[in-house]
């Protein structure tokens, strides 16, 4: 074969070699192996999807229970405030119908002060010192005789209205909290009168927990709980005060 004849046959030989390679690559054995591999991947994906579905069902069940607990706590708080308001109204009505005035009304007003003070002391530690100081100042004026009992009753009624508003409002405030034996300034975000969370300038976040008859502030260690609380602060700072918020459960006496 001459050189020119070889040049004519070269493309044919190259084409034949490529065809043989393609036939070898798509052989039944290679295809079967690929199918087995794909089937294994599909089964693994199905397993992952099923696990995700089960985890989602568990989370939804937990959130549903937490929501029911929150609603029950709201109901209890509103009933408590409503009872306090009703008691004061009855006392005022009884005093009015009996023609009681001046010094005769004084012990009734002071008893109402004591009931409201107990309510503030046992409730969430939201600006407790400020609220008690204002209440005690009114009481001091009543005891000193510089504030007449009927006027004190009106101011006390307004105080009850403020306390009732606290049970309904969510927001961010600034207050001093006791943390690890020290008083520190913190941003606090409350959920009505049920839960109170705090955020410090150094990045720590935490919650108020009931401890016996009082309260204590504790830092949240879990990263997921930190993110939930920070997300709640972010929503409130954007004036988003209503909606679905996922928060650590502190109703049972501790963050979970």
Report on the structure:
The chain is of the alpha+beta class. Helix content is 63%, strand content 15%. Strands 1-2-3-4-5 form a 5-stranded antiparallel β-sheet, with helices on both faces. Strand 3 and strand 4 (205-211) form a beta hairpin. Helix 2 runs antiparallel to helix 3 and helix 2 runs antiparallel to helix 5. The N and C termini lie far apart (88 Å).
Main sheet specs: 5 strands, antiparallel
DSSP helix count?
Answer: 6
Low-confidence stretches: 1-25, 252-256
**Helix/strand/pairing class, anyone?**
alpha+beta
Number of individual domains: 2
List strands and helices in order, with pairings.
Blueprint: H1 3-25, H2 28-97, H3 106-122, H4 128-144, H5 149-168, E1 170-179, E2 182-191, E3 195-199, E4 205-211, E5 214-219, H6 223-237
Antiparallel strand pairs: 1-2, 2-3, 3-4, 4-5
Put the structure in a nutshell.
The chain is α+β, with helices and mostly antiparallel strands and 256 residues long. It is built from six helices and five strands, in the order H-H-H-H-H-E-E-E-E-E-H.
Q: Which features does this protein show?
A:
disordered C terminus; 6 helices; 2 domains; 5-stranded antiparallel β-sheet; alpha+beta; 256 residues; 5 strands
């Amino acid at each position: 074969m001459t050189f020119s004849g070889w040049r004519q046959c070269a493309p044919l030989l190259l084409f034949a070699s490529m065809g043989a390679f393609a036939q070898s690559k798509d052989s039944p054995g290679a295809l079967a192996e690929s199918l087995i591999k794909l089937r294994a991947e599909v089964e693994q994906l199905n397993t992952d999807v099923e696990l995700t579905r089960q985890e989602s069902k568990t989370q939804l069940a937990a959130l549903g229970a937490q929501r029911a607990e929150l609603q029950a706590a709201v109901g209890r708080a509103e009933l408590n405030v409503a009872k306090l308001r009703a008691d004061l109204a009855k006392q005022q009505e009884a005093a009015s119908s009996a023609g009681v005035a001046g010094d005769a009304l004084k012990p009734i007003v002071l008893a109402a002060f004591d009931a409201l003070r107990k309510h503030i002391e046992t409730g969430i530690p939201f600006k407790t010192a400020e609220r008690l100081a204002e209440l005690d100042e009114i009481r001091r004026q009543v005891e000193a005789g510089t504030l007449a009992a009927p006027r004190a009753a009106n101011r006390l009624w307004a105080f009850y209205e403020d306390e009732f508003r606290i049970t309904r409002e969510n927001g961010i405030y600034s207050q001093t909290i006791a943390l690890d034996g020290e008083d520190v300034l913190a941003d606090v975000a409350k959920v009505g009168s049920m839960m109170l969370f705090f955020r410090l300038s150094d990045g720590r976040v935490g919650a108020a927990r009931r401890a016996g008859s009082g309260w204590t502030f504790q830092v949240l260690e879990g990263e997921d709980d930190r993110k939930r609380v920070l997300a709640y602060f972010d929503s409130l700072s954007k004036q988003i005060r209503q909606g679905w918020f996922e928060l650590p459960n502190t109703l049972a006496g501790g963050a979970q």
